User: Fold this.
Amino acid sequence: MDIIPDFLQRPIVRPASSQSSFDNEPVAGPSNGHYIANGHTETNGFRVSIRRVEPPGRGMYAGSSVDREEFVRLVLQGLRDVGYVEAAATLEAESGYTLESSSVADFRECVLNGQWGRVESSLTSLGVVMEEDLRVSPAYVRFLVCEQKFLEYLENRQLDVALEVLREEITPLQQEPQRTYALSGLMMCDPKDLHTRAQWDGAAGRSREVLLNRLQRYIPSSIMIPPRRLETLLNQARQLQSNACIYHTSTRPFSLYIDHQCDRTEFPLHTTMILADHQDEIWHLAWSNDGTRLATASRDQSVIIWRIGVSADPNDCALEQRLREHANAVSFVAWSPDNNVLLTAAEATIKMWNPKTGLCIKSILGHEDTVCSLVWRRDGSGFISGGMDQKILFWDKDGKQLDSLEQIPIRMSSVAISPDERWLVVAGMLANPTKTLVRAENGNGAQNPALTGKQTRFTVYDLRTKEEHASIDMTGEITSVTISSDSNFGLINHSPDGVMLWSLEEPKLVRKYAGQKQTKHVIRSCFGGPGENFVLSGSEDTNVYVWHKESGTPLEILQGHGQGSVNAVAWNPCQEAMFATCSDDHTVRIWGKDPPGFITSITESTTEDIPPQVSTLSRDPPTLRWDDAREMFL
Assistant:
């Protein structure tokens, strides 16, 4: 919901003499480079003389590129936001600048008091901005005002007046026809039902404040400063420093007094646990949404659910469930948003599990070839599956098929939904009878799913309409797609030796991350860190690679896994410095920060693709085999 600064809700306190008391005072002669005039303000009922200070030029001071008037007005707004009204009044008197004109104050008062006739006339006098990117007109701005007025009349059961507003004011504007139709359907609602159906909290709620914020978008910012603008600028400065901090993993706020920089020791460089209960290669893993459990899928036809942090120690661990009912290697796992259902895929079969009891709820058949991905809808109402049979199937939460997209010209290797559910992204090999799925041998003699052929594609669909938004053809296998939390970017693993960041709105390559090895195996990368500042990927050379997302700078090559590929990486969604990796060596590694007092042993990398300042790290804790011991080795 939009935020209105506190000062919008209370009268503005101005100096007793306001502008007229000093704006026309004769300007005194220069004194120490400043021009001084006399003004007055009132503090606790006493009239205090305030000298107006007028430095030369328009900058804050000599050599400054910051406009002095903008700076002072932002400070005035910030002072009023936190309640320093008298300090703001003194600054107005001393600087000669006011936060806003009386017409802006009157406009705000009219909106918050529901004086709709005066609101419309005030908008005209203030000058509504028709910004091209906002695609609005004066009629649309008037529509917003009339909509609020209509809803308030309905709430007060003044149905005749409300109907007149709908017919005589809203409909002729010809704005938002679907919304206008929906408004007409509210005529017979009682107030409670009105609030629910209109998603509106009433005149006594914050609806007028929300309207004020929406209207303010179309008023020149020089006339009416956006709400809490100083706080916005300071938060932007913080975000810029977070993005520039290459090892930023902390969610704690940091000081504005100095530039921020995280120490490398804050990054999870250390293997804190090795989980070794699988009997074969581990192909996929996924954290529960609360970050307390980890599901791992293996070629040994089983899924293990691990409980991480079973005690106060976040590095404690327990094997919670072992799911064994699949008849084939398990290639994918996915947690429901409430963590009450776990989906697993093995060849063309999908199973639904209760992760607390370990019982299979349902086996689902619908695909005719290997299922490559399972993705839950954001609200938990259902999920989507994609397979190499060129099908995307839509299921409800109970595993009943609702819809499908078939004959997609891609034998899919990965499917993803953006968090805002705007985009559906599919990737894989272009369908061709001469190109088939094979099992490529790896260096250990084991087999891992891989694709032959080199003509691949990733396609972005509008999830709502299921229509194609854009397609990009590529040469080289695409093995995974992960979408950023802001829904703007897709992270793609692509052979040979490539991890790429693509924008989705207008698909274009934003950045490449070099160094990891990928020629024939399915490797899955991920975003990492509380602000997704990192990109992490496994590799066929047994290592884990870490890059800074914004700059593409390679940060770490983490050693530890045994022979074979590191197949997948997953960052814990609730722990700021913890991630997990799985490998062909039959193990899962949990990575965390160095314990206090630990001295890291570092050797410089000799890898040609990685700068020499990037370190490699190898260090093993005791290995946990749950079948051999029921507690963590110390």
